[in-house]
Amino acid sequence: MHITYRYDSDGYPLGKTTEAKDEQLSVIATPSKDKRKKMDYTAISTLNNRRIGNVMQRCDYDRHDNPVNCDLQIVDESVKPPVTRKYTIKNNIEYY
Fold it and tell me: Which of 21, 32, 53, 79 could be 45's S-S partner, Cβ–Cβ 3.0 to 4.6 Å?
C-alpha cells in the first residue's frame, strides 16, 4: 500500500491518495480562496478515477477568524440515488 498526502504552503491538507494493488482512492480538497476561511472547503472522492462522493463545509467565523459554526454536507454518490447527510458543528472558543 502506498499513501500520498498533499498540503498547501501553510500546512493545511489538500488531499490524499491511497494505492493498493490495482485500486486507487483519492480525496482532493479545494479550500476557500479567502485565506481567513481555512475551514471552508469542498472535497471530491474518487475510486479508480470514478467519482464516489463529495463533501462541502462552510463556516461562520469570529473576529479572530476561528470557526464558530460550520455546516457540513456529505454526499455519497456510490449509491443510487445519492445519499446526502448534513451536520452542524459548533465550537465554543473562550479568549483570555
Answer: 53
Give the residue numbers spanning the domain of 46. Answer: 2-90
What's the CA gap between 73 and 61, in Å, rounded? Answer: 18
User: In the prediction, which pLDDT does 10 show?
Assistant: 86
Say how far apart CA 6 and CA 24 lie, in whole Å: 15
Residue 81 lies in a domain: yes
Mention every residue, 6+ apart, whose C-beta is less than 8 A from residue 9.
Answer: none
Whether 95 maps to a domain, the answer reads no
For 6-29, write each residue's pLDDT tens digit.
Answer: 999 888 899 999 999 999 999 999
Is 96 inside a domain boundary?
A: no
d(CA 90, CA 15): 24
Cβ atoms of 3 and 25 closer than 8 Å: no
